[in-house]
Design a protein that fits this description.
Bound molecules: beta-D-glucopyranose
Strand order of the largest sheet: 3-2-1-4-5-6-7
Helix content: 40-55%
CATH topology: Rossmann fold
Order of helices and strands: EHEHEHEHEHEHHHE
Strand content: 5-15%
Radius of gyration: 18 Å
CATH architecture: 3-Layer(aba) Sandwich
CATH class: Alpha Beta
Distance between the termini: 45 Å
Structural class: alpha/beta
Number of strands: 7
CATH superfamily: NAD(P)-binding Rossmann-like Domain
Number of helices: 8
């Protein structure tokens, strides 16, 4: 589905990023596996991707650091020649009640989740504009998939920094899609609900926690990283070539106001 395309996935050493990097490799793309910590895990992802007969490269960079991001893109272009798909996935949580949230907690989450997506999207877009459409590779001059969250629309007490960052990702994605669409570049977002990854371990780790969590999910299943990875793969492919500026919610129905199933 993505044969001959070059992809970069940020935060690809664990969770949703890891599953997405592997899914893109399985679909035929060469993949840069970005990570900021745990080199061994990133190298393991590279080996798994190489098992599909495509190329992969692990690259350490903090997406909120401009010089590290430009360095990563320079290396990718040197190594793979170009980029066709950016999955701006790297993200984190630093939870605290609003009145106790430190500026450092606020800033870290905005820096990684929002500024990191801006920096990576800017560098990817420059290369998409330089290269343009390559017939036989993709109908599009380039694809950006922003990893958002159901919390781009669902307010989330105790997670002010995180919800604000994802609300920002929505406008980042839509504004970029509007601005870059005329150049043949597609920008979209995937908004996961509760997915079984390290970021929310406390929410599914015990049977009691999982039971509470399932009340928020009409489909009554906690998502797997592969649920998100397949959505990203299809969205980045030409099967979705006319999809521009859209958020694809992959959340088991979490955004359907499940509290109203009986109330209201
Ligand atoms: C958060 C998770 C949370 C999920 C649903 C995600 O964006 O990172 O911690 O479980 O949203 O609330």
């Amino acid at each position: 589905m993505l044969r001959g395309q070059k992809a970069l996935v940020t935060g690809a050493n664990s969770g949703i990023g890891l599953a997405t990097a592997i899914a893109l490799g399985r679909a035929g793309a060469d993949v840069v596996v970005n990570y900021v910590s745990d080199r061994d895990a990133a190298e393991d992802v590279v080996r798994r991707i190489e098992g599909f007969g495509v190329r992969a490269l692990a690259y350490e960079a903090d997406v909120s650091d401009e010089a590290q991001v430009t360095g990563m893109f320079a290396r990718m272009l040197e190594e793979f020649g170009t980029i066709d798909i950016l999955v701006a996935n790297a993200g984190l949580q630093r939870d605290a009640p609003a009145t106790e949230m430190t500026l450092a907690q606020w800033q870290k989450v905005i820096d990684v989740n929002l500024t990191g997506q801006f920096l990576c999207a800017r560098e990817a877009a420059k290369e998409f504009l330089r290269r343009g459409v390559v017939p036989g590779v993709s109908r599009s001059a380039g694809k950006i998939v922003c990893m958002s969250s159901v919390h781009q629309v669902i307010p989330w007490s105790g997670h002010l920094n995180y919800a604000s960052s994802k609300g920002g990702v929505l406008m980042l994605m839509e504004t970029l899609a509007q601005e870059l669409g005329p150049s043949g570049i597609r920008v979209n977002a995937v908004a996961p609900g509760a997915i079984r990854t390290p970021i929310n371990r406390a929410a599914w780790e015990t049977p009691e926690a999982e039971r509470d969590l399932l009340k928020l999910i009409p489909y009554r299943r906690v998502g797997d990283p592969e649920d998100i990875a397949s959505a990203v793969t299809v969205l980045a492919s030409d099967l979705m070539d006319y999809v521009v500026g859209t958020t694809l919610f992959v959340d088991g129905g979490m955004t359907l106001f499940p509290g109203f199933a009986t109330g209201g």
